[in-house]
């Protein structure tokens, strides 16, 4: 297992987990099962990933074979934008639990601070950017007038009911995090953000540490996750795996250290949790044991921090014909 961090509600969460975004359905159950055998205990999923049935199958197989118990695992999912209305939040989490075959989630995030128009599960699930036939024909995303406070309070009700143990927020900027702290009854335990050397967000991460909110990084390898999505920005950006600074630091730590390990250790050494994915067992093991593999010097941390360009690859401003300026 990886090191554990203690969240502000007392739960212990692995610092390294398996991200389930873009794991193909046909191999997902096997990858989750194999990851559990290798020592993974945190699985970061979401409504929008469309593979929770398979994630649940992998978990169930490992539990049935007595490799782990449910209590050994830290299972994560995310409320999708189409279910922000307080009347719909529970609908989403109940479907998450049904697909995963679980009674509760350890952590449930609000995926984005954007409220889409509600789409009934029987019409399309997961709905993605779909918000109705009319909207689809117009090439737009339908939205609803729902405040983030109302959505958050509905999430708090899920804790009270025992459906989730912890609340998380994702893709929130600093102002929205501050706002949550003003109205919440149950404090969020984690903020998940795009975080890599091209987007270090030092003020946001420091603010979260001051308020005992664990920062969790997604897209730790920067543009790598978005090249296959044909992102122009990603395609035009020097891959972090090939950046001279990262390569130089990897070489300094020995021939067996890779640039990917340097990037992950840069995050964990600064107290940021990570959820990388891989289909290769040897890389899964390396990611899980990243804290044992190397320790970066203060100067090396500074060199990597200096690569920051405030370059974001996952920006709702670019979604279809809509303009959602949540990071403006």
From TrEMBL:
Gene3D superfamilies noted in UniProt: NADP-dependent oxidoreductase domain
Q: Where exactly are the transmembrane stretches of this chain? A: none
What keywords sit in the KW lines?
Oxidoreductase
Q: Which SUPFAM superfamilies match?
A: NAD(P)-linked oxidoreductase
Active-site annotation: 49
Q: Cytoplasm as a keyword?
A: no
The NADP-dependent oxidoreductase domain is annotated at 25-308
Q: Where is this site: Lowers pKa of active site Tyr?
A: 78
**GO MF entries:** oxidoreductase activity, acting on the CH-OH group of donors, NAD or NADP as acceptor
What's the name of the protein?
Similar to Saccharomyces cerevisiae YHR104W GRE3 Aldose reductase involved in methylglyoxal, d-xylose, arabinose, and galactose metabolism
């Amino acid at each position: 297992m990886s090191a554990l961090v203690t969240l502000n509600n007392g739960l212990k969460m692995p610092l390294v987990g398996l991200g389930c975004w873009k794991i193909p359905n046909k191999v997902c159950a096997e990858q989750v099962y194999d990851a559990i055998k290798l020592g993974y205990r945190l699985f970061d999923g979401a409504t929008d990933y469309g593979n929770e049935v398979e994630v649940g199958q992998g978990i169930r197989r490992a539990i049935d074979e007595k490799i782990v118990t449910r209590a050994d695992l830290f299972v994560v999912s995310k409320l999708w934008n189409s279910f922000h209305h307080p009347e719909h939040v529970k609908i989403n989490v109940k479907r998450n639990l049904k697909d995963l075959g679980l009674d509760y989630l350890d952590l449930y995030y609000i995926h984005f601070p954007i409220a889409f128009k509600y789409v009934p599960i029987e019409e399309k699930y997961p709905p993605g950017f779909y918000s109705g036939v009319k909207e689809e024909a117009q090439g737009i995303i339908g939205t609803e007038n729902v405040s983030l406070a109302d959505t958050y309070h509905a999430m708090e009700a899920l804790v009270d009911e025992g459906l989730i143990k912890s609340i998380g927020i994702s893709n929130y900027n600093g102002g929205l995090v501050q706002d949550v702290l003003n109205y919440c009854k149950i404090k969020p335990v984690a903020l998940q953000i795009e975080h890599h050397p091209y987007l270090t967000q030092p003020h946001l991460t420091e603010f979260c540490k001051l308020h005992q909110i664990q920062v969790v990084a997604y897209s730790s390898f920067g543009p790598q996750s978005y090249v296959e999505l044909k992102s122009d920005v990603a395609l035009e950006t020097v891959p972090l795996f090939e950046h001279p600074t990262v390569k130089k630091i990897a070489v300094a730590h020995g021939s067996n250290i890779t640039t990917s390990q340097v990037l992950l250790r840069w995050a964990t050494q600064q107290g940021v949790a990570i959820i990388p994915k891989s289909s290769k067992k040897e890389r899964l093991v390396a990611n899980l044991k990243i804290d044992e593999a190397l320790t970066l010097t203060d100067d090396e941390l500074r060199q990597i921090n200096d690569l920051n360009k405030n370059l974001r690859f996952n920006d709702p401003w670019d979604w279809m014909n809509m303009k959602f300026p949540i990071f403006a």
